[in-house]
TrEMBL record:
Gene that produces this protein: folD
HAMAP family linked to this entry: THF_DHG_CYH (MF_01576)
Lineage of origin: Bacteria, Pseudomonadati, Pseudomonadota, Gammaproteobacteria, Pseudomonadales
GO BP, sorted A to Z: L-histidine biosynthetic process; methionine biosynthetic process; purine nucleotide biosynthetic process; tetrahydrofolate interconversion
Sequence ranges assigned to domain Tetrahydrofolate dehydrogenase/cyclohydrolase NAD(P)-binding in this UniProt record: 140-284
Protein's UniProt name: Bifunctional protein FolD
Amino acid sequence: MNTHKLIDGKANAARVLLQVREDVERLREQAIEPALAVILVGSDPASQVYVRNKILRAEEVGIRSLEHRLSTDTSTEQLLMLIAHLNADRSIHGVLLQLPLPAHIDELRALEAIAPDKDVDGFHSQNVGGLSQGRTVLAPCTPSGCLYLLEQTCGDLRGKHAVVIGRSNIVGKPMAALLLRADCSVTVLHSRSPSPQLLCRQADIVIAAVGRPRLIDASWLKPGAVVIDVGINRIEDDGRSRLVGDVDFDSVLAHVTAITPVPGGVGPMTIAFLMKNTVTAALAQHQALRSQSEALCRSIY
């Protein structure tokens, strides 16, 4: 295996987390203690693992974490009451609602209830709209992590043709917006795209986020492309269960300039950028409160 072709998500995430830890220390010197509240509704095993990993990373970088575990039969209104309480708590800087939610809960209402400045997942419509307009907002963690990997691998992205395979609200659409902001030419492929392989073969950069195991093989890629595989799919292979991406890793490795493995590629970056967003949110909220206080003093005196 040509290991020089692998984009090491763990190593890149470690660099991001080191910077986050330094930022947390600087904030603490200003008496600001970044805090992240995580809400888990129900007992989905995968969600429990994700939440545990997020809380562990928060502790490692010095972010205070609070976990709110709610029963599966929690109502939408009960969830909204908790979110409102966390929004009002100035000691909490980030609110993360772990998805998926139980089917009876209104997911859109719940996500929209989180204050935009505490929306460290970047899912609130105000942050989504701001991202599409090119403004500086809290952007979704997985696409942000993918962009970081691309910048570390490719350097200047200006003028490169990027193809995003998948148009989900969580990855595909915000990924396209971030790439546009980086001055890439962007094509988004989805289930209704004609001749997707032909279009994909024109790309310098391919981001696969479609949720279909090993869909993209060498026939989809031009020689020398850089590939970011966001897919995480569990399959049975030779009688054992294992994780694979949306890209047929073994068949494309010799064909590309660089590629993320699954696991060990994009996954670690998602949590790293959740921590980064929490620190960004803490600083922004502190600055907003200071500005409000200064404005109040000017109005009085």
